């Protein structure tokens, strides 16, 4: 069935067997943006949202999401993440989320980085929905994916 590794010879869903792969240091970075009204940005900057510190809570939610990606995406492997970093920054049009996830394993962590960005954005949405009805989240993308051999 083409080049899809998550589909078996009968076209059924298949979790890829990575058991024979050599463990490597794997890292992925992702980005996402939520567009907000100017007054919403101001409320976030002033830490005046009723639900609390929007950026800190979004960062924590993103880290938690990275650790739970295999619970959310059916064919993702459970990974032992060694680092999950989520940084939320105010930009002119809203908030930008940058994530970095790292593990030592046999498969990459791009889904974890993308999930972290997505959930951080959704958390911002949830915390701001009472004051901003025009929010748009998106521009979620993988920025970088690397693998490095372990040092002997």
TrEMBL record:
Catalyzes the conversion of (8S)-3',8-cyclo-7,8-dihydroguanosine 5'-triphosphate to cyclic pyranopterin monophosphate (cPMP). The lineage of its organism: Bacteria, Pseudomonadati, Bacteroidota, Bacteroidia, Marinilabiliales. It is an enzyme of class 4 (lyase). This is cyclic pyranopterin monophosphate synthase. GO terms for biological process: Mo-molybdopterin cofactor biosynthetic process. Keywords: Lyase, Molybdenum cofactor biosynthesis. The keyword Nucleotide-binding does not apply. InterPro entries: MoaC, MoaC_bact/euk, MoaC_sf, MoCo_biosynth_MoaA/MoaC, Mopterin_CF_biosynth-C_dom. Residues 15-147 form the Molybdopterin cofactor biosynthesis C (MoaC) domain. GO terms for molecular function: cyclic pyranopterin monophosphate synthase activity; GTP 3',8'-cyclase activity. Pathway: Cofactor biosynthesis; molybdopterin biosynthesis. PANTHER family: MOLYBDENUM COFACTOR BIOSYNTHESIS PROTEIN 1, MOLYBDOPTERIN COFACTOR SYNTHESIS PROTEIN A. It holds the Pfam family MoaC. It catalyses: (8S)-3',8-cyclo-7,8-dihydroguanosine 5'-triphosphate = cyclic pyranopterin phosphate + diphosphate. NCBIfam families: moaC, PRK09364.1. It comes from Labilibaculum euxinus. Its EC number is 4.6.1.17. The gene is moaC.
């Amino acid at each position: 069935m083409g080049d899809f590794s998550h589909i078996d010879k009968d076209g059924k869903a298949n979790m890829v067997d990575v058991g024979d792969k050599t463990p490597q240091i794997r890292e992925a970075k992702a980005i996402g943006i939520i567009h907000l009204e100017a007054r919403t940005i101001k409320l976030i900057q002033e830490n005046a949202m009723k639900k609390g510190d929007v950026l800190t809570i979004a960062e924590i939610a993103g880290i938690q999401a990275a650790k739970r990606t295999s619970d959310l995406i059916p064919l993702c492997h459970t990974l032992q993440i060694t680092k999950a970093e989520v940084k939320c920054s105010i930009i002119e049009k809203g908030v930008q989320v940058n994530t970095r996830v790292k593990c030592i394993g046999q498969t990459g962590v791009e889904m974890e980085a993308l999930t972290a960005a997505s959930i951080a954005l959704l958390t911002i949405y949830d915390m701001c929905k009472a004051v901003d009805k025009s929010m748009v989240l998106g521009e979620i993308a993988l920025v970088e994916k690397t693998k490095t051999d372990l040092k002997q």
